[in-house]
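User: Hi! I have a protein structure encoded as tokens and I'd like to know what sequence might fold into it. I'm fairly new to this, so please keep things simple.
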């Protein structure tokens, strides 16, 4: 009987821990810095379709060698570019989105997970299942 009580208490504490770590869809909203530290991405919610997007709001080096704004391979300015698109919140993860790499001009499948309050795990992949890809850790930027 004593073992049953201990097991019940353990299961109850695990269940309550799961509840305390539950995330809300808007927890992703804010300004984030990818691991390279050369840009800030503002993640926001589009109220029209309830999906999440991200745009480049700061570049460490916004201009190229000739002093003109940096562009992607298609000639589009990187600053203010929307490079995260169409994320939906499902089961503590933001999925079904894409991430655009303005350096290479490549578009990847993407999922985002809030690892901690101020850390995102952003996984870009070649396949929709996230098998072939890489994960980058982004840090939330403090705002006034």
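Assistant: Happy to help. Inverse folding works backwards from shape to sequence: for each of the 144 positions I chose a residue that suits the local structure. Here it is:
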């Amino acid at each position: 009987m004593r073992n049953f009580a201990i097991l019940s208490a353990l299961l109850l504490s695990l269940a309550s821990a799961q509840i305390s770590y539950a995330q809300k869809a808007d927890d992703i909203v804010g300004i984030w810095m990818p691991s390279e530290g050369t840009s800030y991405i503002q993640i926001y919610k589009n109220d029209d379709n309830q999906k999440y997007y991200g745009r480049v709001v700061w570049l460490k080096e916004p201009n190229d060698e000739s002093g003109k704004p940096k562009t992607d391979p298609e000639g589009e300015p990187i600053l203010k570019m929307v490079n995260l698109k169409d994320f939906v919140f499902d089961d503590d993860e933001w999925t079904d989105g894409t991430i655009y790499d303005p350096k290479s001009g490549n578009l990847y499948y993407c999922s985002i997970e809030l690892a901690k309050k101020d850390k995102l795990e952003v996984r870009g992949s070649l396949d929709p299942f996230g098998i072939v890809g890489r994960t980058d850790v982004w840090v939330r930027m403090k705002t006034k």
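A useful reference point when you look it over: Residues 3-20 have pLDDT under 50 and may be disordered. Feel free to ask if any position seems puzzling.
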